[in-house]
Amino acid sequence: MYRTNRAGELRAADVDKTVTLSGWVDRRRDHGGVEFIDLRDASGVAQVVFRDSEAAKQAHELRNEFCVQVTGVVSRRPDGNENPELPTGEIEVVADRLTVLSSAAPLPLPIDDKVDVGEDVRLKHRYLDLRRTGPATAIRLRSEANRIARELLHDEGFVEIETPTLTRSTPEGARDFLVPVRLQPGTWYALPQSPQLFKQLLMVAGFERYYQIARCYRDEDFRADRQPEFTQLDIEASFVVEDDIIALGEKVVTALWKNLAGHEITGAIPRITWREAMGRYGSDKPDLRFGVELVDLSSYLEGSEFRVFSGALAAGGHVGAVVMPGGASQTRKQLDGWQDWAKARGARGLAYVLFDEHTGEPRGPVAKNLSQAHLDGLAAATGAKPGDAVFFAASADKIEALELLGAARLEIGRRCELINEDEWAFCWVVDAPMFGKTDEGGWTSLHHPFTSPNSDWAANFQDDPGEALAYAYDIVCNGNEIGGGSIRIHDAEMQSRVFETLGIDEAEASEKFGFLLEAFQYGPPPHGGIAFGWDRVCTLLSKADSIREVIAFPKSRGGHDPLTGAPTTITAQQRKEAGVDAKPEAKQQS
RNA sequence: GGUCCCGUGGAGCAGCAUGGAGUGCUCGCCGCCCUGUCAAGGCGGAGGUCGCGGGUUCAAAUCCCGUCGGGACCGCCA
How confident is the model at residue A586 (pLDDT cuts 50, 70, 90)? Predict the structure, then answer.
């Protein structure tokens, strides 16, 4: 037996008990005759004292992170020596036996939550990083999130089903990770980008309610909130409409935030349509923790002789603005900084007008290009007050202009410190468009090709694909998309009209997802679902800056695992066996 | 594919603008002292190709070019 108690759980009530503890040397304090060891295990830390014994001499040899076992008597600390900072601060273990279970080399990083360490070092020695309370807490929180979701969905009658991770490419749009197949040289599995098709098949199979904490893979570039392998809480249900899934999603989010963030979500989470989100916030995942809404100036500036505006409007585009409170006091350098900021985003620049702090007079380079009438009404049209700055975006592509303003809005929120970091602001973004324009002028699914049009567009979405709306919904928290889903198409005729609109002919449809279409010949139930970006949810709940904090062994840029060194090259023998270079025998694609 | 930031003993940083001896700080490490500390304290010590390569210069951590590695963002990606 390695221990009788857990170190962090000892209390005054345990005084006089003889206990054995096992754990790590969190810190040693050597006083030349008395040795203090903070012994740490997963439960916490307890102080161990060695005095006047053979064990004390042994304890002198201990170093940080040695793994040790001690036996001693729990004692009340001498008066005045209690440590109110520690849950175990009233007691200490007066030890008479010490066993070194294993020693530790000098550490490559301090096991200390008070010290910042570079992420590369942390990840290379992640097993030591995770001995620290902060990083370990994020991983434990994730475990709790899993438990809460499982319990809730179990209570709601959902069945947890694992779907394959060796499969064929699903039509999600991202690049696939591919796995060579030894038994059929020259053929490849794809790792799933999501269990999308399988969960729909499970609806055809009659489970009615499915969920899975599913690992997904996408071979795209990194971000602070993106890893090549990530996890979704994936949910699908039959005989549901949009409101049913939204209600379920709210239950999940409410339970998570109540238990893990101490935040009570009261009432229904507000819904905003996709178009409204774009128009007011320039984003399909608006951060509602602050105001500063966009203004549509397209009609107000009608007839403007300023080329930038008139050009955009003549092309049927959009001119909009966003107000930066107090922005007129910015230095020339700061205003130039905005131009660089806009250019980094692919825009030509960011036109602005400043309203004088005292007189309210509009000034700045763009002001000279506007007519007196347009200038006179500008403050009223934008809601700008004296001392504010107004940024403009104009583009023939309305979405492009709105997204630039939306990005500017977020930047204003940051620079003006308008965001309360302790706040949680949720919303559903609903009524997403079914289709988006491709660079080639065709249409592509904004969600995926099985997303159902809403009832208004069910019959005629193909006539005006750019305007058609879907039963598709995203849930957004503080400007992060944490989940999204849709009601699926269960009607073959409607599905073929979607394929037609997407320019997918029957042969291609049957090649890509014939198995799903075939399944749908056998009485598919109406169904829909949602998938939560589980890593993002856990990142938010743990208030972390990066998704990597809630992943035990994350990858760094380029898909490199700093700990194992993966990916690696393979031997010629492995290459041959895997059939990487083999030409497929005449078959496949059916 | 693009833009930007970072790289200095084991960890974290300063030094760089305005070139002048590997200079400094905090922690860790090694040794000695110390019987009530809890981020213990005191004294002493070791540890460096300033990521790498090239260039400018009498002289480069410092300036220039390239490259590698890490990070943030855009493109891409639900």
Answer: low
8 A C-beta contact, residue A493 and residue A517: no
Residues 118-157 of A with CB under 7 A from strand B: 118-121
b/e A212-224 (16+ beta carbons within 10 angstroms → b): bbbebbbeeeeee
The DSSP call for residue A73 is E
Phi–psi pair at A404, nearest 5 degrees: -65, -45
Q: Please write the tens of the pLDDT for every residue from A240-285.
A: 999 999 999 999 999 999 999 999 999 999 999 999 999 999 999 9
Quote the CA–CA distance of A80 and A153 in Å, as a whole number.
51
From the C1' of B28, which residue's alpha carbon is nearest?
A110
Q: Which of A233, A242, A230 is nearest to A470 (CA)?
A: A242
Q: Do A8 and A41 touch, CB atoms closer than 8 A?
A: yes
Phi, psi of A311, deg, nearest 5: -60, -45
Cα dihedral value A253, A256, A260, A266, nearest 10: 50
A210 residue type, one letter: Y
Distance in Å from B20's C1' to A214's CA comes to: 61
For residue A480, say whether its CB is under 7 Å from any atom of strand B: no
Check whether A203 has a pLDDT greater than 80. Answer: yes
Answer for the pair A253, A149: CB distance below 8 angstroms, yes or no: no
Q: Which helix (H) or strand (E) holds A343?
A: helix A332-344
Query: Could you read off the pLDDT of A374-423 as tens digits, one per residue?
Result: 999 999 999 999 999 999 999 988 999 999 999 999 999 988 989 998 99
Read off the DSSP letter of residue A463.
G
Q: Is the CB of A279 under 7 A from strand B?
A: no
Listed in order, strand segments (DSSP E) in A365-412 are 389-395
Query: What is this model's ipTM?
Result: 0.91
